[in-house]
Specification:
The complex is a heterodimer of chains A (about 260) and B (about 300).
Chain A (H helix, E strand, L loop, with lengths): L2 H19 L1 H4 L1 H22 L1 E2 L2 E2 H31 L4 H5 L4 H27 L10 H25 L5 H15 L12 H7 L3 H14 L6 H25 L6
Antiparallel strand pairs in A: 1-2
Helix pairs in contact in A: 1-6, 3-4, 3-6, 4-6, 4-7, 4-8, 4-10, 6-7, 7-10, 7-11, 10-11
Chain B lengths: L1 E11 L5 E11 L3 E5 L6 H8 L7 E6 L2 E2 L4 H7 E4 L11 H11 L4 H14 L15 H13 L5 E5 L7 H16 L3 E5 L3 H7 L2 E6 L2 E7 H6 L3 E8 L12 E6 L2 E7 L5 H9 L4 E6 L3 H15 L1
Parallel strand pairs in B: 3-8, 3-9, 6-7, 7-8
Antiparallel strand pairs in B: 1-2, 1-4, 4-5, 9-10, 11-13, 11-14, 12-13
Helix pairs in contact in B: 3-4, 3-5
Classes of the chains: A mainly alpha (about 260), B alpha/beta (about 300).
């Protein structure tokens, strides 16, 4: 086994054991929140809304809600874990060791992806109590959820690198991520919006992720898949490059 | 072979503070080297640069011939760092802390657990291996950081005030452990505020002040510079007062007297004069640690220049 692989395995194991150790804070709250969404928006209000894009409202919102939980959990896992490591100085354990920058990124992002996917799976299982889910295209489903969780885990990492206090790691999720997710077509189809707002919505990267994921379940999307995947992959490459540059230069990590 | 070669190393922090002003330093393989200096002198900055926690402004650092600029991975493999502050994850168990650290150096888990058993046993922490590290006492946490630094079996161990806040009994057991490591071939660089610790353990010494190395020599050579020592003699009750011919002495209280002794003078002369005056000496000791006196002289001399 190569030294890099052992280092990655150690970091990833540590990250996964961190969030599973505190499962009451990391895995249960999103399950409770999403169950409330299913009950209130899906069952109570949804039954009065009728069909959307040819599906029941519950069927329509479930993929978006799963993706929303994946996004928030991938992001917050890396943001809080990496910032805590910085705050307690145990990130120094990695900085003094001969661990390449890409392993540090892969370890933390891998932890974020794992939590995002685990929460996504829990929410998916919960949704089965409310709706019969059919999978239209498993490949699209898996690739889109993996890329999206990677993208937001990278975002959380950059946030944590730049953060100077715990407040700094809650600003982005509260004031950027949540509004973008709500306006990203979780609860409605973009086709319901006037042309101008449809155009504005297309500047929101979360729109592409939710639509791609929804396509995996329902086979319908407001945006062509190839366009969505290009956007997501492009963002992943950009955020990875930024995180790599920051860690290599020691920004926010070394004096 | 040189364990560490530092050339013209400089560090200026963002605020303009010049922590290091172009220092040169060499540490031989197998040495036990003390890097001393008052607070803010530049010791931790030097250690930070060697261990890649601080970016240097200028200069070069080589660890066992591996440059930090060109062969960082190889250089890092040689170094084990015991920092001043506790910096392990407080929520992990003792075993997790050391095994994870070994993993970062590419040590397979099975071997890491074997080494963990070896070092945690030597440092009397094996029984605590499943305890959360935050639950350990201060002394145990210090020992845990030493065990963690040894997990990849570094050739150069850097200890930044490893015995700060540790009781004397534990400190002595840590000294024994470090001496044993050094005898096994590990080069050790130690910073400490306990100067008797440096005097007892280290063969060579560097003193840094205001970002400049003001002394870099062997411990013997440095101590030889001390011309005058002050001894305190504890006397039996009701001892008469007396003048010691050929020595400068001061009576401190009824039962103790301080005598300044030149390097070339013999102590026998003092004892024979005490006997002649029928004064019984119960015990004697150095007034101050010898290295401490030299250190204060060097640092204060540099400050006045």
């Amino acid at each position: 086994m190569s030294a890099n692989f052992i280092a990655l395995k150690s970091l990833l194991t540590k990250e996964v054991s961190r969030f599973t150790r505190i499962w009451l804070q990391t895995l249960v709250p999103p399950a409770v929140t999403m169950s409330l969404y299913f009950v209130i928006f899906g069952n109570l209000i949804g039954s009065r809304i009728g069909q959307m894009s040819g599906f029941s409202y519950m069927e329509f919102i479930v993929p978006g809600l799963i993706m929303m939980s994946v996004i928030t959990n991938s992001y917050s896992n890396v943001a809080s874990s990496f910032f805590s490591s910085k705050f307690q100085h145990n990130v120094e354990e990695l900085l003094v060791a001969p661990v390449p920058t890409w392993i540090i990124i892969a370890g933390y992002v891998g932890g974020g992806i794992t939590r995002g996917l685990l929460v996504g799976l829990i929410v998916t299982l919960l949704s089965l109590f409310f709706v019969d889910l059919n999978i239209f295209n498993l490949g699209v489903l898996v690739v889109s959820v993996l890329l999206t969780s990677t993208l937001f885990a990278l975002g959380g990492l950059i946030n944590a690198i730049l953060a100077k206090s715990f407040d700094d790691i809650s600003i982005i999720p509260n004031f950027v991520l949540t509004p973008l997710t709500y306006l990203g077509g979780v609860f409605y189809s973009l086709t319901l919006l006037p042309d101008f707002w449809q155009g504005v919505s297309k500047a929101n990267p979360i729109v592409y992720m939710i639509n791609t994921f929804r396509y995996g379940f329902l086979g319908v999307s407001d945006i062509p898949l190839i366009y969505s995947f290009t956007m997501i992959i492009g963002f992943v490459v950009i955020l990875f490059s930024i995180a790599y540059w920051m860690i290599s230069r020691g920004i926010g990590l070394r004096s | 072979m040189k364990a560490l070669v530092i050339k013209d190393l400089a560090k200026t922090y963002k605020g303009g503070v010049e922590a290091l002003k172009g220092i040169d330093l060499e540490v031989e393989q197998g040495d036990f080297y003390a890097l001393l200096g008052p607070n803010g002198a530049g010791k931790s900055t030097t250690i930070g640069i060697i261990s890649s926690l601080v970016n240097k402004t200028a200069g070069t650092v080589e660890v066992f011939g591996h440059s930090l600029d060109n062969a960082l991975v190889q250089a890092k493999q040689q170094i084990g760092l015991v920092p001043q502050e506790f910096n392990f994850n407080q929520f992990e168990t003792v075993l997790q802390v050391v095994v994870n650290q070994a993993g970062y150096y590419g040590v397979p888990r099975k071997l890491a657990i074997e080494r963990a058993q070896k070092y945690l046993t030597q440092l009397e922490l094996w029984d605590k291996r499943n305890d959360k590290s935050r639950e350990l006492s201060g002394g145990m946490k210090r020992r845990l950081m030493i065990a963690r630094a040894l997990m990849h079996q570094p050739k150069l161990l850097i200890l930044d005030e490893p015995t700060a806040g540790v009781d004397i009994e534990l400190r002595r057991s840590m000294w024994d452990f470090l001496q044993q490591l050094n005898s096994e071939g590990v080069t050790i660089i130690l910073t400490t505020h306990y100067l008797e610790e440096a005097e007892m353990l280290c063969r060579n010494i560097g003193i840094i002040n205001h970002g400049v190395i003001v002394q870099n020599t062997s411990m013997k050579a440095l101590l030889a510079k001390l011309n005058l020592e002050t001894f305190v003699f504890d006397l039996a009750p009701n001892s008469p007062s007396c003048e010691l011919e050929g020595f400068v002495s001061r009576r401190i209280d009824e039962r103790s007297i301080e005598v300044d002794v030149d390097r070339d003078s013999e102590l026998n002369g003092i004892f024979s004069q005490f006997s002649a005056h029928n004064i019984k000496v119960l015990s004697m000791r150095n007034k101050a640690n010898r290295l401490e006196e030299l250190f204060i002289n060097l640092v204060s001399k540099e400050a006045t220049q």
